[in-house]
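To start, one record:
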Amino acid sequence: MKFLLALIVSLYFVACSNSESFTPPVDETAVLPIVDTTEDSTQEIEGMLRLSGDKVMLGTNDKSFKANERPAMKVTLDYDFYMDIHEVTCGEYASIAKKAELKTFGKCENDSLPLTDITYYDAVLYANAKSKLEKRDTVYTYRSALFDGEKHCTNLEGFAFHANVDGYRLPTEAEWVYAATRAWDVKKSWNNSNSEYKLHPVCSIGTDSAGFCDMAGNAMEWVNDWLGLFRDTTVTNYAGAPDGGDMGERIVKGGNYSSSAKELNPYSRGDVYTVTSSTRAEYVGFRLAFGSIPDALWMNDDGASTSNIVTSLVGSEAIKNLIGTFNAKLTFRNDVSGNIAYLDYSNGTLSVKEITKGINAYHPEISPDGEWVAFSTGYEGINGTSSVYVQSLDSEIPSEPIKLNVKSAAIPRWRVLGNGDTVIVYVNDAGNNKDEAMFKSNSTWQVKFANSKFGTPQKLFDGAYHGGISEDNTLAVSGARILRARVAKKDVIWYDSAQACNVSLSQDGTKRTAFLDFAGKPGKEFVGETYATHQRVFIADSTGKLIQSIKAPSGYTFDHTEWATNGDKSVVVATLTNANGAHTKIAIVNPEDSSTTEIVESEELWHPSLWLKEVQKTIPSTEDSTENDTTFHLDPDSAGVYYNTSGNYVAVQWRYKMEMLWQYMNTANVVVLGSSRAMFAVNPLYFNKPFFVLNLANSENTKYGSKYIFHNYVVPHFKKLKYIIISMDLDRWYHDNDYNFFYSKYKNFPGYIYDENHNFWIDGIPQDLLDMTFESLGQESYAQKFRPARGFQKSASKGWEQENVPIKRDSMWYSKNSTVYYKNYDLLVDIIKEAAEHNITVIGVEFPQSPAFKTTGCYAQFGLQRSQMPQLFEEINNISKTYPNFMFVDENKMGDHDYPEEMAQDAGHLSTDGATKMSIRLDSLLRTLE
């Protein structure tokens, strides 16, 4: 029987909420999909319903919603797919785990509860396991998995989603919204009438009812997509963004048992905190979809849709193992888009950036300082005019390409001269070099590049030597039909005049030349066997004598070979071409062991160039250098390594806070501790002398975390410290120790364990600890956020969310369990007591929240009853009677504060404008205490 069911969704009512009911809009012009619930259909895949594709609207034009939920975007799904009737339960997960190689987690209260508190990667591993058990191909592939101490997967290196595979997977956001808004919580689930603050069993579907359940309540749910922006357009078979950007953000959908909303909000795409693939929350679970997505399209933030995804096959740790450093960048031409793209391996998210849009660009190469990329419009082997451009790689400050104003220039290569000048070497024509007269009619040039400008070009010599010039200027090489060399100012031909191309001269002092050939006689004689064109990378010494040959992986040949060096280690980067001639992968070829490691995959990749940071590096010191340096050999795999490719956004924030902790410990006399409320509200740059402020507040931080940092790092090492500013966050005192980053999660990052094992360096800081922390893996977006203002994070003014103020927790939690509140109270007292022992004043600040909470029974975003607050405030103020070094500053004033709409980022945080006002006030307060 086929029929439609009206949308009936309901959520648990928490103790205080002023949210009005919300009914998702239905496109009346669209033909509603059919949910086929006949016996034959529903039994095709047990526990799933089949959906027939149609139109769905993502996002909204309502300006009261978040920026990433606007504007409305039309999506057409032109395929059928299946989706789970309900969220995956603990029992279902346990059943699959017994049959497959799946990690098991802590036990649920009963098997009918939805499985929650799992990462995105946990969910996709479950999907893969289910596909394997049914002997299907897996939708997700990866090279290796990283698990935390609780057996949750926090990273899948080389992770790739294959939309064309028929297997189990997470639903896309479009599929999830399509299901949620077109039909169906088939009935008010019986558990929704129970307002108790906990998860309930997922709804049961009987033979007399059909549809999806728990999409509006119980648990929020992972979907498949990376978080991207919407556009006012129509996209067919939309599959999200190509990647998660610098933040590595994912999407969760639906309501949960603690939500204040009364109806399904299909526009919501996230949670209170940033959602990444390694995020876990006690109220986030998932359901599966099944079926391939034909001709899936991903959409970049600029609105361009693409079916071509560039996938990194290795993580930053693997790159470090290959070349000895995280400080590497890969640039290449995406021949499908025609753009130059690059990956920054010091950025844990490995987001692929594309630049040079509108310019048909080839042969990119990154500058010695890693800040610029040069490229040309012509490429090796093609005669004719070409232009050279330079463009900044700073994603935060987009720039226009800077053109070299000459008649023709091709294949740019960077050099640093003996006098320190940075120059670009280029040729005026990169065509066929077989004809000697034609070759010598062209020439090799160099031009200085400094302060974003080109200097005056200088001719070096006749002959188009685009394969590189040695550091001592005694050797230059060229390919594209034959291997030419300029040795001691004389032009010679190497490799017995046999055909050669993709020539590259190493810049490590060895003067080795790497190239490819056409299976010519010299190569066959050297390797002792026949081989295919471009099947081997050949390496010649400074005289042109062959010294090494490395064979391509089975099924592939090489193309576009280039040396890369950091002054200590040298490798060759190349594309791998499949049997059909497509350049589908980029690989690193290691001459030391003749190994080939595939690092990037896509449809058509050209001209890779790998930049490695020079081994010699000057780290900022002067007033920020550490005192009491001790001679100690630090373990480079542990020291200062406070982050890895897990993508945990809390961890990456702490990574930069730790960097600044070591950098400013001899300078700072005021330290800010606490949650994101303090991180966004206290700007160190608005404090005047004699105050030097360092903001060590962090997202999701609790009193447990603040005490850990204060006791183990701040007190032992900040010898000039006089003041602690700490966020009070009274409504967040429902958190117990297990929510604290320093309870267990920190153990996944070796730097903290290394510090702990060395007694937090109370006997002296090793000389290289700051350097190693500075050089360790991170995310450039966070570096740019935190470094300029010593840990403060800027944010835009978006208002207090007064029309739809979010209440994220039952306000009755204190009445039901005050014990956990007073554990936090005691932690605050512990911090104050330890501070008193070191003559440190503690200023506890209750930061402003939305005035709209006054219209509810809730005190703030995470509850507490307003009627309870006078008693709690009195207890806080009374602390100063025992410990005079404590001062309570209430900037919230039960919502009657003087921080207007334009000073708010959201309902719980100040914006940068609000932080300016707050910081100036705190600066004035400190002056009264001096």
User: Anything to note?
Assistant: The first helix runs from residue 39 to 42.
